[in-house]
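Handover notes (outgoing to incoming on-call)

Open items:
1. Carbon-monoxide dehydrogenase, large subunit: sequence verified, structure written out, both below. Nothing else pending on this one.
2. Nothing else urgent.
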Amino acid sequence: MAVAERVLGQPVKRKEDPRFIQGAGRYLDDIVLPRMLYMAIVRSPYAHARVKAVPKEAALSVPGVVAVITGEDLEKAGLAWMPTLAGDKQMVLAVGKVLFQGQEVAAVVAETREAAFDGAHALAQVVEYEPLPVVVDPFKALEPDAPILREDREQKTNHIWHWEVGDRDRTERAFAEAEVVVRQEVYYPRVHPAPLEPCGCIADYNKATERLTFYVTSQAPHAHRTLLALVSGLPEHKIRVISPDVGGGFGNKVPVYSGYVCAVVASLQLGRPVKWVETRTENLQSTHFARDFHMTCEIAADRDGRVKALRVKTIADHGAFDAAANPSKFPAGLFSIVTGSYDFPTAFVEVDAVYTNTAPGGVAYRCSFRVTEASYLIERTMDVLADELGMDPVELRLKNFIPPEKFPYPSPLGWTYDSGNYAETLKKAMDIIGYWDLRKEQEEKRKRGELMGIGVSTFTEIVGAGPAHTFDIAGIKMFDSCEIRVHPTGKVLVRTGVRHQGQGHETTFAQIVADELGIPVDDVLVEEGDTDTAPYGLGTYASRSTPTAGAATAMAARRVRDKARKIAAHLLEASEEDVVWENGRFHVAGAPGRSVSFQEVAFAAYTNPPEGVEPGLEAVYYYNPPNLTFPNGAYICVVDIDKGTGQVKVRRFVAVDDCGTVINPMVVEGQVHGGLTEGFGIAFMQEIVYDENGNNLSSDFSTYLLPTAMETPKWETDRTVTPSPHHPIGAKGVGESPNVGSPAAFVNAVVDALSHLGVRHIDMPITPWKIWKILREHGIE
Ligand code: MCN
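Carbon-monoxide dehydrogenase, large subunit structure tokens:
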């Protein structure tokens, strides 16, 4: 096919958008089934307390309430606990005691949503608690006299696990011999993905067919089916999970939550559909949060700025249940990407996870697996080193980048990076923003007492969970899948094992198929989210859809093409070897006039298949990636700070991303805009805060601040392309990259603006109040 005609790499408009823009999307709460009941959950007001009594009658006496489920009921049914993604177990409804504010205590089922809430409210008034001492600080939780939170565990400690990776001895030696050592403590705050559509489900158990249809706003429908089968004991083939349009996920819709299990139990008991949809406050209080890493980073280097070793120690607050989105064999996930884009000869990393009386955590927020924390830490500390050495941050980075000729690059912490040209990417960002002119401008402004900063972040991401030997969920290996059915008229139905939440798969996966088969994008329909129709897959998160299901899609299309070639040879009365596929047609080599279109071949597959060839034209491909993909980027941010108010204004932000071969540049740009906006919110606004009694002080949008269009800066984006050598079309994931890379660029810019005052670090979120105080401490009015 002539390159100009290829649909891969074209900014095809998103096929899904007309229905979203017209309000015609079908989300979970739009679904109303006949005879449907509604469920509401009673939650603990205490962060740590014994539950003495749950007098159901209070709710049952409310008109319309038909059932109440308690932890005791579930315990009798053997359903009191469910597994988390980290392999810990979590109470479905409180049994004996509660461990965080907002924990699920009882479920109330009623004829209407209002009655369910009234019933839950009535019950909440009379649940008897005996408050216990609360610990919200992970360091205090590790002290010998701290209350033991998880009495259900054999280990009588709040310490969950210790993990280390790297070469301790070699790293110690490098530090002992180093000319320069910098050390920086960095806190990555607790944040929450807060998708606009909160979590919810409808459990619909049909007693006659003994089948459960489970509608859920899910990023991973097949994984949910398997987990529900494991938790409920229902046979998996009797469960159908349907994930309708998903109103944002960002990692929040990967876990199985208590509400899901309770709705299933209620539907099994009552033989009627049961809907549960949480409120915003419930979402912010009790679904899993992300980050909350207390990190110490040290870099050993030569005086000329060559890095020699990296040493990191981290305390991870995992809340009341260890729910870390961590389907890898490493408990700290992919935190070991912490050497970043730099050629460290050696490194050593330790992570300790701790229980506290806070919501279960360690889960994803547009990046799971701890890549965000790792990238932020290394990018922050490289700036501290640059400051120590009196070097410009870009010069330090250019000196230490892994050079292109070293790929595939074995990192000292065990990864093999696939490809990249970090210097090219950084130089492109510098050219676009006019880096050296900005430095001159900054110098001039400083002389005038004005505060301007330039922040750089040159991150390496690690995305695409698989491969299967490294990743699994509940033992299920992390591959992904695609099924392609070609109809007799040449129109194509594609189903994959992932589930988009706004990422545009209906368009980009159609582009992959259209490109491989030489047919119009509009002839391809992509469907995801129904476990009865889609092949098994592990879902959409970790920017894995393109590296796994995208690859499966290309490979399935190639299988279809291979069969189509056989049929074409039959139609052309030529041998298969002589048939060439070009410009969307099959023709006999050397005789382009003797050709058939893909549509003609599809028709023949059903009406006139060659002897010995099965009728029909379809293929399934399960793709187990040989490695992860390693996208990267160079982000540069320019800020001005108002001395009077401490307000930071992001004047410019240039993001150059390298996600390998680009399927759809417009979709990639949209992903980058979204991720940068989230990174901006994390850097300047968002934080889940608990008081010392374990009260969540950020449980609505007036206290947990998300950026709106009013605050969001203008993003300038561009790309470099180093294809992944092990992906069939060379693509790497991109969805998380901007959220991984941008927080450091923002913070580095603010610290740079204040570095001449001796400021080396400020923890996120960087609020005007924090800056204002720093300025006053330095006598700046
Ligand atoms: N793409 C492309 N070329 C590439 C790489 C990707 O055209 N080289 C396209 C893909 O085909 C896909 C989109 O970009 O349409 C994102 O692809 P990918 O990076 O594979 O990420 P996923 O589809 O797996 O999405 C996951 C990622 C994550 S981890 C979170 S969290 C996230 C995100 O994407 N949540 C989102 N983006 C989101 N966007 C929206 N609107 N809503 C969310 O909840």
